[in-house]
């Protein structure tokens, strides 16, 4: 059963409004402000009354109840160190001593990014949180993704990025949605990591068609010139945050653009990873 708590449309959250204010039309802002007052009341109600777990519907003041929180996060899967694709159990047995294992695709044709951290596969039940974040502005899911990505990063031996950026949306999509769901993860993650975050360092200059129906090579061509860098990334290690990584073509194109602009290293932080193309 899908249950949405009273705080599921928290448009008053500064992670959304502050970063995207300059790009959101006036009418949208007024609507969001009105919703902000409504959600302030909802915030009080949510804390005065019991709320429900986003996954199982049990009573819970937090986004997830204790049982779901313990059960679904940080699934013990060995992933490709570069693209976070889940690796077969045979690889796990053969190379379990080496934590930096790679999938065949990354060995054959390495992408432009250096590393990818992913929390879990994109599938039920955690895909519900990604949908809630992306289409219903449930920003608590962004915070939860950030908290778990931070814990995952703390357990790795990876260098700390100089700056954290969200995978940008095109202007049209940002206007339509009113917020960037990747920024809702990137901002709290940067705060937890004590790293500077910047939502305007990279822009999406070309809107690309839906990726899921395209083959790998077409996806690569499709996003090849989708991004533009406006900040100074020379010599920097950039942490790129996204909610869902599907083929990796978008993040590859973004990392390629960053490196062509002088970035030294790119690490992806993605909440959920689609297991196969
Ligand atoms: Zn639950
Ligand atoms: Zn890989």
UniProtKB/TrEMBL annotation:
- InterPro entries, per database record: ComF/GntX_DNA_util-trans, PRTase-like, PRTase_dom
Q: CDD domains, alphabetically? A: PRTases_typeI
Q: Which residues form the Phosphoribosyltransferase domain?
A: 187-270
SUPFAM superfamilies with a match to the protein in the record:
PRTase-like (SSF53271)
Record's signal peptide: none
Q: Which Pfam families does UniProt cross-reference here?
A: Pribosyltran
User: What family is it from?
Assistant: Belongs to the ComF/GntX family.
Q: What is this protein called?
A: ComF family protein
* Organism of provenance: Caballeronia glebae
């Amino acid at each position: 059963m899908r249950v949405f708590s009273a705080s599921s449309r928290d448009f008053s959250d500064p992670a959304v409004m502050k970063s995207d204010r300059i790009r959101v039309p006036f009418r949208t802002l007024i609507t969001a402000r009105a919703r902000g007052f409504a959600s302030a009341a909802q915030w009080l109600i949510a804390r005065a009354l019991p709320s429900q777990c986003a996954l199982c519907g049990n009573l819970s003041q937090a986004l997830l109840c204790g049982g779901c929180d313990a059960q679904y996060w940080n699934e013990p899967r060995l992933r490709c160190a570069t693209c976070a694709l889940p690796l077969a159990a045979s690889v796990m047995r053969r190379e379990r001593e080496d934590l930096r294992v790679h999938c065949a695709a990354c060995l054959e044709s390495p992408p432009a990014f250096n590393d990818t951290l992913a929390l879990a596969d994109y599938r039920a039940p955690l895909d519900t949180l990604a949908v809630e974040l992306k289409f219903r502005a449930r920003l608590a899911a962004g915070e939860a993704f950030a908290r778990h990505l931070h814990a995952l990063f703390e357990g790795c031996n990876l260098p700390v990025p100089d700056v954290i950026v969200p995978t940008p949306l095109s202007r049209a999509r940002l206007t339509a949605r009113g917020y960037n769901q990747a920024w809702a993860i990137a901002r709290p993650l940067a705060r937890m990591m004590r790293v500077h975050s910047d939502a305007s360092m990279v822009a999406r200059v070309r809107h690309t068609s839906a990726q899921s129906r395209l083959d790998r090579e077409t996806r690569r061509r499709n996003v090849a010139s989708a991004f533009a860098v406006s900040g100074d990334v020379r010599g920097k290690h950039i942490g790129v945050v996204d909610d869902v990584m599907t083929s990796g073509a978008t993040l590859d194109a973004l990392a390629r653009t960053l490196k062509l602009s002088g970035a030294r290293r790119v690490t992806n932080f993605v909440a959920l990873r689609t297991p196969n193309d």
